Here is the input.
Amino acid sequence: MRKWIVAGALIVILSSVLYTFLGSDDPETYQKEINELREETNRFMQYSEESPFHDQPEEYKGLSFFPPDLKYKVVARFEPVDEAEIYDLPTNDGKKQEYLTYGYATFTINDTTEQVLLLENVREEKIFLPFGDATSAASTYGAGRYLDVQHHGGRTIVLDFNKAYNPYCAYIASFSCPLPPRENLLSVAIPAGELDYH
Here is the structure.
């Protein structure tokens, strides 16, 4: 009897951890979560003093997105780098920004296996994935998009491309934005996240 109680408790704990890690995978609940996040982003763009449109509010026309799709919330295999190194990313205005190498994420979408380099933005204390894909310059911003990633340890990491967003230079050309490294230019199309602004 005691074994069953312990096993049940472990299942409950594991389920709780997975829910915290992955979030809700109920399609209706997940769609609501993503849409609320997008509404919050639109409010930020329109009203925040930190918005790229703060000095040009008349230029803001609202953001557009692909419909939320759980298919593009993927659990990837994570491989940490042996030792973090400084990684210089070129920017759209010919400069460079420094990041630290964090690790590699390997995942499969549409029967295609891809591997991306995850970088650590030390200034903002977050894991950063700049990437391009087969939608770039077609339906999404030509210079690529960004994805902020959380890693809770272990050998897996969630990449939710429904949360992919444009760099500020997609809206205002005067912003300096890092470009995706060559290893993060994917052959597969990822029709998820933010569309091109124009």
Summary: Residues 56 and 172 are 9 Å apart (CA to CA). The helical segments are 2-22, 27-47. The first strand starts at residue 73 and ends at 80. Strands lie at 73-80, 86-90, 96-109, 112-121, 126-131, 145-149, 156-160.
